[in-house]
Amino acid sequence: MNQADTAWMLISTALVLLMTPALAFFYGGLVRSKNALNTMMMSYISLGFVGVLWAMLGYSLALTTGNNWLGDLSLAFLNGVGLETTGAVVPLTIPHALYMAFQGTFCIITAALISGAIVERMRFSAYLIFICLWSLVVYAPLAHWVWGGGWLADMGAWDFAGGTVVHVNAGVAALVAAIVVGKRSDYGHASILPHNIPTVMLGAGLLWFGWFGFNAGSALAASPIAGLAFTTTMLAPAATLVVWTFLDLIRSGKPTAVGAATAIVVGLVAITPAAGFISPMNAIILGGIAAVPSYLGLIIRAKTSLDDSLDVVAAHGVGGTVGAILTGVFAEKSLNGLFDGAIAGNPGQVGIQAAAVLTAIVYSGVMSFILLKVISLFVPLRATAADEATGLDVTMHGEEAYLHGAGE
After folding, report:
1. In what helix (H) or strand (E) does residue 294 lie, and over which residues does it extend?
2. Does residue 404 lie within any of the structural domains?
3. Spacing of C-alpha 319 from chain mean position
4. Which of 8, 23, 218, 304 is the most exposed place for a label (fewest CB within 10 A)?
5. DSSP β-bridge partners for residue 382
6. Nearest-angstrom CA–CA distance, 111 and 104
């Protein structure tokens, strides 16, 4: 047991847990006022239901030895998860229970990320059932493949803090959900604008703050690698913000606040799989590169009939894919001993990273589709047209965000 490591992981776990309320603010400000509370609740509810399911079953399915495909149930209901450093799938210098809690915060926010694609029209009960099942059927197996000693880990795929497990996974599930649930009734026929951009900015800032625990905490110790991940997490989003601002200026002549907030998130997503593997200067390059495909993804999506309400696919799906692949380009053995060098020395790593991304896309896409279709047999996925028109805050929760209204 190492007291410094334990102290850092206590802080990191709290930081990552904060990211889910931060996501609620980020998403909540981007929707119309009549749906603000419903949108925020889609993040907050994950704290409860997914958090409890993680302790009961998810942790054991994801992060026990099991086999190459899935963990076993040896740690179900936290059996054997105590204050000692033993019993986890990885060597620890912190209490096993703390490691479980830290990993649980990842599952919680990954499930919540999906909501951004289906806000303002998905029935809350159907969404709740979906994220509960998804956390066990999709997230847990993929986490096992990468972090639990599964077949992707054996293949040599590296994901420092969740590029494939979290962001590609959630981005693909969001795409499938947006398609299956369908677009909003007034999509393409009415102006659908963010109702509170300062809230969006607040959410983005809190996400960045929490992300230091997300990435640097993934070192599982107060170590030099944690310091590296902390630094790259500061620099990559900064570079994304710079490039994004220039793209805004080139396209419209005006840098937008929503664009700045989105850029920060894209940069954070992109650096996540590489945070402890690349140098600070390469983090700047990675962050700058990541801005371009995600920015183009936003533009292209807007010209299609796909109603990915808050552009989860462009930010998380595309950003996570770029970051995961570029991990194979920029990773350096001198920093962590895991890679043979940059792409010139180990081009095969890029192929391994791409294979891991493709695996996440296929598995998450197929299983998310099946889950949604099965749920639809028992619970309608869509809110009624009348509920949509009134707003889901009142119809789903019996509350209003603004008593005197702030426009729709």
Report:
1. helix 280-302
2. no
3. 10
4. 304
5. 122
6. 11
Asked whether residue 229 is domain-assigned, the answer is yes
CATH number of the domain bearing residue 324? 1.10.3430.10
CA 158/CA 164 separation, integer angstroms = 9
Contacts of 296 (CB under 8 A, 6+ apart): none
pLDDT tens digits, one per residue of 340-386? 444 444 678 889 999 999 999 999 999 999 999 999 999 999 999 99
DSSP string for 207-231: HHHHHHHHHHGGG-SSSHHHHHHHH
The answer to the question of residue 84 being in a domain is yes
Using alpha carbons only, how large is the chain's radius of gyration in Å?
20
| Chain segment 115-166, per-residue pLDDT in tens | 999 999 999 999 999 999 999 999 999 999 999 999 999 999 989 999 999 9
The rounded distance, in Å, linking the Cα atoms of 209 and 19 is 8
Name the token pair of 180: 């299956």
Its sign, for the CA torsion 52, 57, 58, 63, is: positive
Q: Which domain holds residue 216?
A: 3-397
User: Rounded to whole angstroms, how far apart are CA atoms 334 and 330?
Assistant: 12
- How many domains in the chain? 1
Which of 186, 283, 209 is closest to 239 using CA atoms?
Answer: 283
Instruction: Please give the angle made by the CA atoms of 167, 172 and 173, to the nearest 5 degrees.
Output: 100
State the residue for tokens 């009624």: 384
Calculate helix-pair angle for 197-216, 257-271, nearest 10 degrees: 10
Q: How many CB atoms lie within 10 A of CB 344?
A: 8
Residue 122's beta-bridge partner residues? 382
Q: From CA 219, how far away is CA 338, in angstroms rounded?
A: 13
In contact, 323 and 158? CB cutoff 8 Å: no
Neighbours of 78 (CB within 10 A): 15
Cβ count within 10 A of residue 69: 10
